[in-house]
Design goal:
The chain is of the alpha/beta class and 337 residues long. It has two domains: 63 residues, no CATH class; 261 residues, Alpha/Beta hydrolase fold, catalytic domain (Rossmann fold), CATH 3.40.50.1820. The chain contains 13 helices and eight strands. It has an eight-stranded mixed beta sheet with strand order 1-2-4-3-5-6-7-8, with helices on both faces. β7, α12 and β8 form a beta-alpha-beta unit. α2 packs antiparallel against α3 and α6 crosses α13. The radius of gyration is 20 Å and the shape is globular. The N terminus is likely disordered.
Length: 337
């Protein structure tokens, strides 16, 4: 067992020490308290890129949540929210889906709005996919869209944030999206979007896997679809991503039918070809192997001529600081809305 070298002086350090153990050395990961949370987070990101084991990524995501939890009260967070608050409204509301409460964040520009709406579906699995006002304002895609005049809504999946229920990682929780549009149809705060057409959906990782299902089950609510790092073959992910099968077992029974419903490569050819689709995937993605996307592109190219695929040789699971990649698909949204 490898332990942190710094002195454990408080409950925060004890909790990190309890989680971060076994498997590999973490020497130097946590800086001394005086070095601050921001530096800890930078080191976290550096170590994160080295993790091959899904189990270890899950473990360190817990460490990150502890550190980010401390960052909640840092001045820079308040400054960002305050600055964005000068140009954007932020609302949080709730609606009911099958008797359970669903939390939704809604941000929209105070002026220069184009009255277009984007729906952001975050990544994560088994309840580890929480969105909040800080993430909505600082996530580069949602921030770019806000700056271009789009309104953004992002629903919390069941079991995340203040949403009730159990996260099924792309199962019946997909229906939450359809219920959302029923809930906002008569909401006066959303009436400005009515004449702008159907919203664009952006799904990242697990959110991309869910977006494929929304396009299949509820095509009437989708104007365009952007999928970033989304899996299309869950069997392939289970085979090649260590520990992910066990993580998903916490959310849903791994029956053939449940896996099939979450694997767009098995049914996407029958999805409406009228919905423009943009797929961005990194060829260095260790979470979702690029080979399944190569096969997916080949399989649907004849049935979905409006589908655009971008495979980037330097990108991992997410574009992170690749503003050039984000600019390309945000420009694509503007052209196709």
């Amino acid at each position: 067992m490898h332990k942190f070298e710094h002195n454990i002086e408080n409950e925060r350090d004890l909790e990190i020490e309890r989680i971060a153990c076994d498997d590999f050395s973490v020497d130097g990961f946590i800086a001394e308290q005086k070095e601050g949370v921001a530096r800890d987070l930078v080191r976290y990101e550096e170590y994160y890129k080295q993790f091959e084991s899904h189990e270890m990524r899950e473990r360190w995501s817990k460490v990150r949540r502890i550190l980010v939890g401390e960052k909640e009260n840092l001045p820079e967070k308040k400054e960002i929210i305050s600055r964005m608050g000068e140009s954007c409204y932020l609302d949080r509301f709730f609606y009911s889906h099958e008797g359970e409460k669903v939390e939704v964040f809604h941000a929209h520009p105070k002026k220069d709005s184009n009255n277009r709406l984007a729906v952001y579906l975050t990544g994560g699995a088994a309840g580890n996919c929480e969105m909040d006002d800080y993430n909505l304002f600082t996530h580069k895609t949602t921030r770019d869209l806000l700056e271009r005049g789009y309104g953004i809504i992002s629903p919390q999946y069941p079991g995340s944030g203040k949403s009730e229920g159990v996260d099924q990682t792309g199962g019946s929780d997909v229906a939450v999206i359809s219920t959302l549009f029923t809930a906002i149809k008569n909401d006066r705060s959303f009436q400005s979007y009515e004449n702008a057409g159907k919203p664009v959906f952006i799904g990242e990782s697990r959110g991309g896997m869910m977006l494929y299902q929304v396009m299949r089950d509820y095509p009437e609510v989708v104007g365009q679809g952007i999928v970033v790092g989304g899996p299309v073959d869950m069997r392939d992910v289970f085979d090649k991503r260590s520990g992910f099968r066990e993580t998903c077992e916490k959310s849903f029974a791994l029956t053939d039918e449940n896996i099939r419903r979450r694997s767009a490569n098995e049914w996407f050819e029958s999805v409406s070809r009228d919905i423009p689709l943009y797929v961005l995937h990194g060829e260095r993605d260790k979470n979702v192997p690029i080979q399944q996307l190569y096969k997916f592109k080949q399989k649907i190219s004849a049935t979905h001529p409006k589908a655009t695929f971008v495979f980037d040789g330097d990108m991992g699971h997410m574009p992170l600081d690749r503003d050039d990649l984000r600019d390309r698909y945000v420009d694509w949204i503007d052209r196709n809305y």
